[in-house]
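Milestone 3.1: sequence recovery, worked example.
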């Protein structure tokens, strides 16, 4: 068996390369590749292993010092299709929670969001329930959301670099088109898919226009683009944090749990918890010199 142990981090609590070399010595690793030594975009490396290893042991050790450790079963290589969730993946917030906060109903909405993202309740039903609470809220709240939304570190580099590698980049969200449109234009995604809020006059109607973009819709978009571009699932990289992202992450050749909720971390083995979004580039073997 030939596999690879991959390492990345934004702010490790101990010297990054010494940790990697210690793990290499313990695991029989060889052919070390240093992808990045940057203190700005992050540090990354990988090496080959020829024998089965307890990757969870090394992941746990990495977690203690703020370093992501991932076991890859094929050599890192650049994908040609990228699908990203938006809320808590590309942006730092959950957009519906943000709207609820501005509308003054945060305490009612946030617990439902948390349960939906944890996979405890159906995503579509949770969306319908939360939106109903916003009926009559001023539509101007949406402009406030756009102005006050923040990107995760590495978001700009992620999309710009993937585009430079001739990959098609899609934003696929259970959030809303008013914000995915803005993020698409800001980061230069090729296209965006999300739910469309119903608005009458200057008020929210309390629902989204059908159909609801749920977990099955994310997989459908992945399949449609693979067919359109003549690609296979192995050519795709997908990223997300919530339970509604799991089917998409499981289908892609490289599915990454980005700061995932507990259920996502339990289900998806490739994880980034201590890296910027540039970690997704490093997982494809892209070095700091090729990051835009």
């Amino acid at each position: 068996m030939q596999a690879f142990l991959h390492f990345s981090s934004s702010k490790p609590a101990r010297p990054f390369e010494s940790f990697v070399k210690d793990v290499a010595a313990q695991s029989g690793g060889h052919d070390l590749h240093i992808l990045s030594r940057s203190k700005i975009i992050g540090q990354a490396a990988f090496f080959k292993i020829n024998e089965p290893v307890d990757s969870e042991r090394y992941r746990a050790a990495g977690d203690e010092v703020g370093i992501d450790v991932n076991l890859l079963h094929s050599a890192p290589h650049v994908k040609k299709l990228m699908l990203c969730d938006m809320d808590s993946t590309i942006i730092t917030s959950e957009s519906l929670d943000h709207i609820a906060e501005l509308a003054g109903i945060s305490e009612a909405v946030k617990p439902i969001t948390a349960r939906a993202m944890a996979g405890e309740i159906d995503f579509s039903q949770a969306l319908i329930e939360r939106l109903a609470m916003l009926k009559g809220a001023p539509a101007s709240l949406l402009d406030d959301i756009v102005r006050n939304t923040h990107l995760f570190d590495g978001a700009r580099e992620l999309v710009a670099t993937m585009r430079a590698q001739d990959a098609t980049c899609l934003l696929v969200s259970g959030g809303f088109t008013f914000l995915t449109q803005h993020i698409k234009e800001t980061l230069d995604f090729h296209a965006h898919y999300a739910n469309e809020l119903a608005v009458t006059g200057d008020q929210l109607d309390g629902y989204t226009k059908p159909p609801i973009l749920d977990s099955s819709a994310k997989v459908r978009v992945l399949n449609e683009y693979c067919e359109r571009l003549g690609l296979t699932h192995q050519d795709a990289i997908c990223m997300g944090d919530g339970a509604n992202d799991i089917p998409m992450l499981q289908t892609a050749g490289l599915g990454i749990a980005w700061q995932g909720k507990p259920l996502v971390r339990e289900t998806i083995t490739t994880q980034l918890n201590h890296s910027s979004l540039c970690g997704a580039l490093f997982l494809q073997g892209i070095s700091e010199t090729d990051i835009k």
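The chain has a mean pLDDT of 95. The first strand starts at residue 3 and ends at 9.
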